[in-house]
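Format notes (please read before filing issues)

Several people have asked whether sequences and structure tokens are stored in separate files. They are not. Every record keeps both together, in the order shown below: the sequence lines, then the token lines. Line labels are part of the format and must not be stripped during preprocessing.
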Amino acid sequence: MSDYTSWTPAEVCQWLERNSLGEFSDVFMEHEIDGATLGVFTERMAERLIPIIKKQVMFISLLDKLKAGESHKSLIEYTHGCGSKTQGSSHFAFPPLLLAALERRDPELKSSKKSKIRTLLLQALFDQLSSKTLYPSHNQYVQLLSSLITIYPCLRENFGSGFDALHESLKNKFKKERRPLISDDEVLRMRTKFAIPGSGRKRTSEVVQLQFKAGRRLAVNGAVATEVCMEERNITEIVKTMAEEVKKVRPDMLFLQEQMTKTRGYRRTYISSHSTREILMEFPCLKLPEILLLEMKDLQHIDIDKQVTTVLSKMAPMILLRASRTAVIKRCLETIEDCQEGPVKKGLQLEAAILCLPSLFSEDSSLLFTAEESDTLDIVTPQIILSGCKEGVPLQYSLVKVTMDKEIMVDDCTDVSLALGVLFSTYFVFGVEYPKGLKKTLTFLEAFVFKMKEERFLPITLKRVFNSLCE
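Then the structure lines:
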């Protein structure tokens, strides 16, 4: 088939099966090929080598230039580059190890914990931006990360803009790298321009731990200002009536709810200035799970129990997968495996996930729950007590209680999920600050399960954990 000018369309198709586009361009430049044969070349090569429509259009436009007698160098360069993702469609210069991780969609790229692959990604992005400036603008960050997740969709996060956590990590990377560069002209100029005398991180020799009572705060609500002021005599009568109602075998929850509304202002003032024991003596109805959940719904307009059983139950399998394999967690997983598929197993998964939550943030699980009541002596914040656990397995409890300040808040929770709702409600109803060793866990619940906090104001650690649970 040496006479190229006499080729038929069928012969063109046979030739294309054995040769490349680069060879075709050389043949075209050396020989005059008729329009019909060239059309066959164009269609067949576009279908076989360039299946994406956008690239087909680019190919055809380059071929039109070739027809007009222009150099076919750009066409050959495009052909050789279109098969390589990193050379043709991406302007990111990534090391081979990182490219391999991106190709296999390594979960460590979006992990909430520090990893070698995640560090490589941040370093590569830092190198990309720092070649232009050590103080990238917001638009530069957004442009770079938008291009990144467009080319590598596996990096897209499941909240916000799709790269919020990565954006925050990259900004922190720049801050860390700039800190020692005191002799750099750009860094020195920016520090001189924006530094505020006396600003910066304040370091202390020791951390002062606040007392439990100092953690109480008066809950302020706009509805309180509109309430009708009642005489102290009437308040006393209502409180007494509520206490009598609670003593009944089946208290009237609707009646108690109405009386709680009438005494809202007085009760919140009382809570802010009295101990837990005094509060429970004055308002024994706060020991009922239903009243605590209703009070929380009145404060924050959220059904805590419903959110636990719907939102958190969906996250449960991934929480168990990501949780650290401690001895307690292993025993919980063994209990779940022995259970048959169905509602009972799903319920056990939810309870185990609740107990595993602190391990996702490397926090102290004893601030959330304990299986031994003797371990609660030094804990004054709300805590779940699992009594009668067989063989030390938390899921095989006989009784679930919630305590605070060494007082039993609720002693008849039906399960761990209800106990979590009661515990979380107690923090808000009684105005208790989150303990330092459990703050991330409780903030995670507040933001991603109960939807009480905007995601953009959250620490990057929480965003990463949530992102890993949504994979």
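For reference, the curators noted about this record: Residues 28 and 38 are 9 Å apart (CA to CA). The chain is about 55% helix and 5% strand.
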